[in-house]
Task: inverse folding
């Protein structure tokens, strides 16, 4: 089932997707449309995916990725929200249904935890936190936010994909965090290594940054390194860049959770930052030892699997299967190089 795409330094580490299990097949559009309406999930945003029906919902099909057990629909989100401080819900950046699934996770988190919820976004680097604060609190308009944040240059994917998440944050007066490193820092680590960074770049890194030792994740990163990447960077620098990327995002969320007892968090990031619990989830757990973290790996699927695919075991705590629309893209490029 899983097709692990090769990623490059310019790739977003976004992966295939996920969905919702109410016993409906993903190709039964009428059932999915009814579920969308009953759950308050907005319809697909016009123009984003011409091949997708306008009222397609993501579905709800979740398995425990550690033992392959099918989970009871929306209840798995409620249980995860009740038992964990942080939910890490991955995405493939250009897939609307992944973002609708993230929205459902946020709605459930809000139901369970109230307004003491903060949403962390990979899409924005930490220097944009003041702009994000202004937008989340309603002090500036969407147009002003997009301009001040430089959304198109900073991220590049259609803001309409993320708009339902931001609208919900503003409506419910929730918190929002800009998680990412500035792109130039990731680029410089890949080129120069951690030891080659300037003092200016170092100020963005979290204390006690650890280069991952997770064997599965290292093998996964090494796979992406093959070919022309090997001519551009040393592998140890490439791995350090990926680790710094993950560590920074995890540290940003962990620092907030540590400083705000009683709060819970939702991490919105590419599934490659969640895979094997080796990226953001591991960083949060190491930096906020009292926190409990649940991870959801999003998988693209035309229908809910009748049995859990053995190849998907261990991808995260949960594997969430979602209909993907439009042609699958092998890479999802984000301009990391300044």
Result:
């Amino acid at each position: 089932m899983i097709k692990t795409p090769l990623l490059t330094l310019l790739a977003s580490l976004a992966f295939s997707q996920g969905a919702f299990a109410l016993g409906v097949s993903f190709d039964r559009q009428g059932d999915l449309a009814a579920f969308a309406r009953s759950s308050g999930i907005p319809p697909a945003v016009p123009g984003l995916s011409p091949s997708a029906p306008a009222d397609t919902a993501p579905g709800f099909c979740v398995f425990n990725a550690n033992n392959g057990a099918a989970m009871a629909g929306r209840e798995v989100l409620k249980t995860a929200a009740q038992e964990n401080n942080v939910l890490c819900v991955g995405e493939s950046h250009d897939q609307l249904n992944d973002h609708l699934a993230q929205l459902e996770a946020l709605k459930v988190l809000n139901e369970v935890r109230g307004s003491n919820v903060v949403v962390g976004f990979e899409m924005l680097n930490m220097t944009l936190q003041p702009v994000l604060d202004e937008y989340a609190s309603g002090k500036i308009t969407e147009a002003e936010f997009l301009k001040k944040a430089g959304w198109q240059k900073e991220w590049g994917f259609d803001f309409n994909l993320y708009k339902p998440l931001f609208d919900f944050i503003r409506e419910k007066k929730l918190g929002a965090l800009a998680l990412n490193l500035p792109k130039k820092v990731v680029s410089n680590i890949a080129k120069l290594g951690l030891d080659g960074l300037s003092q200016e770049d170092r100020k963005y890194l979290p204390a006690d940054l650890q280069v991952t030792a997770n064997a599965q994740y290292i093998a996964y990163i090494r796979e992406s390194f093959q070919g022309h990447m090997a001519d551009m960077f040393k592998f140890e620098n490439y791995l350090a860049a990926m680790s710094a990327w993950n560590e920074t995002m995890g540290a940003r969320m962990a620092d907030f959770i540590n400083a705000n007892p009683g709060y819970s968090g939702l991490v919105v990031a590419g599934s490659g930052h969640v895979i094997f619990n080796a990226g953001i989830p591991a960083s949060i757990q190491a930096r906020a030892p009292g926190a409990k973290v649940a991870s959801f790996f999003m998988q693209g699927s035309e229908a809910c699997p009748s049995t859990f695919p053995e190849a998907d075991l261990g991808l995260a705590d949960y594997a969430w299967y979602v209909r993907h629309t439009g042609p699958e893209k092998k890479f999802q490029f984000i301009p990391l190089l300044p």
